[in-house]
Structure formats: structure tokens, C-alpha cells
Amino acid sequence: MAPPDRAAPDGAPLLEVSGLTKHFTVRRIFTQPAHPYTRALLESIPRFGARRERLAAIAGQPPDLATLAAGCAFAPRCPAAFERCVEAPPETEVAPGHATRCWLHVLP
């Protein structure tokens, strides 16, 4: 099996629930996730050999895909959400070859 950075080409797109895409290198999404939802997903993966009583969970319910709001679909469940998250965030490059759509990465 290929290591994570060889599993897909650099600059692979990731389709978000909002229909928007993030671009990233495969290794970077695992080592430096930029979006709070990506971080939460990675934290909820069981680790072989790790002894935990409970897995990390993402609070709340997934959004209704038929009635998505204009802003970030993860905002109602995001611990870092703030007022501006009700607006659609622009794609922002957080590192070379790594872009995300999150207001946390947009300069004021």
C-alpha cells in the first residue's frame, strides 16, 4: 500500500458538503488540517493500540443537505464558529498547495 502522500496526486480536490472544494496535498490534510471539520473528523478516527474509553465525537447533527444555509455547513457544530460563519467563506490558501474555505484563515 502506498504511503498517504502517494495515495493521490498533489493538489487533490476534496468535495465539501456545501459543494465547494478544498485543494490540498494528501500528506498535509493528515498532518496540518486547516478546517475545523477536517480536524474533528481526524480526531474521531480510532487509533490502533490507543486505549480510550470513548472516541472523540462531533457534537450536533449533520446538516440537512436539502436546506443548506449560505454560510459554513459546519458552523452550528463548530467550536470555533463566530458571527461571520453565516456567510460563505472565500477559498483561502493556507500554505502552498493547500486551500480551505474557513473564515478562521481570512485576514480581517
Short summary of the structure?
The chain is of the alpha+beta class.
Question: Could you walk me through the main structural features you see in this protein, from its secondary elements to its overall organization?
Answer:
- With 108 residues, this protein is an alpha+beta fold.
- It has one domain (4-105).
- Helices cover 13% and strands 14% of the residues.
- The chain contains 2 helices and 4 strands; from the N terminus they run E-E-H-H-E-E.
- The chain has a two-stranded antiparallel ribbon.
- The longest helix is centred in the middle third of the chain and has 8 residues, at 36-43.
- The protein is globular, with a radius of gyration of 15 Å.
- Residues 1-9 have low confidence and may be disordered.
Attribute tags:
about 15% helix, disordered N terminus, 4 strands, two-stranded antiparallel sheet, about 110 residues, two-stranded antiparallel ribbon, alpha+beta
Strands side by side in the biggest sheet: 1-2
Secondary structural class:
alpha+beta
Strand-residue proportion:
5-15%
The ordered H/E elements are EEHHEE
Overall residue-averaged pLDDT value: 78
Count up the helices: 2
Break the fold down into its secondary structure elements and pairings:
Blueprint: E1 12-15, E2 21-24, H1 26-31, H2 36-43, E3 92-95, E4 98-100
Antiparallel strand pairs: 1-2, 3-4
